[in-house]
Design brief:
Distance between the termini: 48 Å
Number of strands: 7
Order of helices and strands: HHEHEHHEEEEEH
Shape: globular
Strand content: 15-25%
Strand order of the largest sheet: 1-2-4-3
Oligomer: single chain
Number of helices: 6
Radius of gyration: 19 Å
Helix content: 25-40%
């Protein structure tokens, strides 16, 4: 039921969706917690990572670091994905605030750790961290807040004027992974 609800987001009005949700609960006699709110963005599943879609939970907390802050490591991880998208023929989207399973986690922990009080200031912080990695190709990136300001989506266009590097390494997208380009791939 929730997956159908997630699929309807953005298609139908909130009133219609709430009515349908209420009718489904009534017909199926589903008991929900009194505080359950399907309008909450946390728990929405966006799907799987792919050649054009990558998820990162945070710009501060790398998942392999047991939730210990390491912004320099995580920014580098994010920039590898952006680099790979810019080196592709299609570009892609990187979602910040979404786990590898495609579930929205939100960016509230980042905002609290970074002492950012608004989505705009948080977005500027993200932009400031990423821009030095891509001095020539930064214009290929478009940042916007989505899902009730709980996710930053970075739309990435392909860079048409050569190969993009991240810390002197060129990356490309292979399925849902970022891989280092070989010298042969770079010369093509």
């Amino acid at each position: 039921m929730e997956q159908s609800y997630n699929n309807m987001l953005g298609i139908e009005s909130d009133k219609i969706i709430k009515f349908i949700h209420s009718e489904i609960e009534t017909v199926l006699a589903i008991e929900t917690e009194p505080d359950a709110d399907l309008d909450d963005t946390q728990g929405i599943i966006l799907g799987n990572e792919s050649s054009v879609c990558e998820y990162k939970t945070s710009i501060v907390f790398p998942p392999e670091n047991q939730m210990q802050p390491a912004p320099h490591i995580q920014v580098n991880n994010i920039c590898k994905g952006l680099c790979a998208f810019m080196n592709s023929s299609t570009g892609g989207r990187l979602y910040l605030g979404v786990n590898d399973g495609g579930v929205i986690q939100g960016i509230s922990n980042d905002m609290k750790y970074l002492n950012q009080r608004s989505i705009d200031s948080y977005t500027r912080y993200v932009q400031e961290q990423i821009k030095p990695y891509f001095p020539d190709s930064y214009t290929c990136l478009d940042f916007k807040a989505e899902y009730d300001n709980q996710v930053i989506v970075i739309d990435v266009k392909p860079y048409l004027y050569g190969v993009v590097y991240c810390d002197e390494v060129a990356y490309y997208r292979w399925g849902a992974t970022n891989r280092q380009m070989s010298p042969k791939q770079i010369d093509v």
